[in-house]
Amino acid sequence: MSDIQIMEKTRLTVLREMRLFIIVWVGQLIALIGSSTTAFALDIWVYNRTGSVTQFALVSLFNTLPLILISPIAGPLVDKWDRRKTMIFADVLACLGTIAIGVLFVIGRLEVWHIYLANTFTAVFMAFHTPAYTASTVLIVPKQHLNRANGLMSLMFGISLIVAPTLGGVLLSIVHLQGIILFHVSAIFIAVVSLMLVRFPEVSTSAVATAKSSFMSEATYGFTYLIARPGLLGLVLFSASSFYLVGGINVITIPLVLNFVSVSFLGTILSLFGIAILAGGLLVSIWGGLERNIYAIYGCMLLSGVFIFVAGLQASLVIFTVGIFLFFLTQPIVSSSTQAVMQNKVEPSVQGRVFAIKGAIEAAAFPLGYITIGPLAEKVFEPLMATNGSLAGSIGQIIGVGSGRGMGLLLMIMGVLTILETSIAYLYPRLRFVEDELPNVSNAVAMAADTASSQNDAVSLIS
């Protein structure tokens, strides 16, 4: 057998072993494109209607805040419910808010506050959908393919970042907002059908998951679980720091790029960053990651610091774009490797609770980057690096002065702090040896999946 035939056989084996995940993933990808396209169109509608950056920003706030607040409640329920059915009901119910927006738009009664309310309504159900989807991965993907599955999850978000703005712009000019909402509903329908076509393997529930306890202890169980395992807690906080960086870089990118080019070219730069995320996810899904995920996390976070530092070093659009492109290229590797460690170390019957808390912490870190880095850039660093600023005669002689140089200096500081943070994290033994000190749970899950497969063909279609 030739090397090419062996490679083809290997690819077919991987696809066969991941077929259940891929069916679900394709449906969720289509749903994400639909929801992201609608979100883009609603963002444009709000900004055109109000002309207010603050009201525009509130759209994102109402998308994020419910996820942070509801996750501690959603996690315990996800662990008790069937995760496939939870995803189905969450998809359908979350879509009702979008349908309401469409109806209000058609009858000419749509107001900005309706969008805030609809986003809150949708986010509540996504607080159930996200941990259910994440916790399901370990049930439907063999251990050796977890990094590939997580890479495909990153790839999914990369695709939506590229496709949604382009598709949204085209559809807005052709079918307008009501047509985009109809497209969104159709995409959700496809996602629901893909979930209805498959069965998830059942894994026996542990005594911890079934034990009766108070509402408060259920809601805080994810925190308690992580605190009892310092290595996992450190991993979640380390991962959250990458979300903080993404939020901070996002808020700096637009004003910094506009110092060099027009608004029309800004979209191209942002699309390049979406391509970087897509490429990183594709790389992980093909490569499969390192055997020791923690080393991939350390390495990519260290490189992230270097890339951010370089991005702010000179008043050059090319250097900034290359540096931030490489930064975003590393993020899918960090997120997929982090997720693989969590999936391997957290008992499947409590993953809903733990992943809900993980998601809430990461979701909180992202806007925190916005609300801290943005004011620092505008109120502190830009004045310091102005032509007559306090640092113009010192640091300004090295990296330049004027508009955008304060943001450049802030990027350099963020890069140095990221390198320092990674070095400190490496010296923390509980995090460095988290894959050695905590037992794997995936092997037991694989055995359960194999048993279910032999009895009922876990990936069979519903007749």
Quaternary structure annotation: single chain
Q: Characterize the biggest β-sheet.
A: none
What is the CATH topology?
Growth Hormone, Chain: A
- Percent of residues in helices comes to over 70%
Rg from Cα: 23 Å
Say which CATH homologous superfamily is assigned. MFS general substrate transporter like domains
Mean pLDDT: 83
Q: Strand tally, please?
A: 0
Query: Which structural category fits the helices and strands?
Result: mainly alpha
CATH architecture: Up-down Bundle
User: What's the number of domains?
Assistant: 1
Measured between the Cα atoms of the first and last residue, the distance is: 38 Å
Look at the structure and give the CATH class.
Mainly Alpha
* Tally of helical segments: 20
> Which ranges are low-confidence, i.e. pLDDT below 50, for 5 or more consecutive residues?
443-463
Strand content: under 5%
Which H/E pattern describes the elements? HHHHHHHHHHHHHHHHHHHH
Short description:
By secondary structure, the chain is an all-alpha fold.
Question: Can you offer a commentary on this structure?
Answer:
With 463 residues, the chain is mostly helical. It has one domain (19-456): MFS general substrate transporter like domains (Growth Hormone, Chain: A, Up-down Bundle). The protein contains 20 helices and no strands. The chain has helices at 3-17, 19-50, 53-80, 83-106, 112-140, 146-174, 176-196, 207-210, 215-219, 221-227, 230-257, 263-287, 293-311, 317-345, 351-384, 396-399, 405-427, 429-432, 434-437, 442-456. The longest helix is centred in the C-terminal third of the chain and has 34 residues, at 351-384. The radius of gyration is 23 Å and the shape is globular. The chain starts with a helix and ends in a 7-residue tail after the last helix. Mean pLDDT is 83; it is low at 443-463.
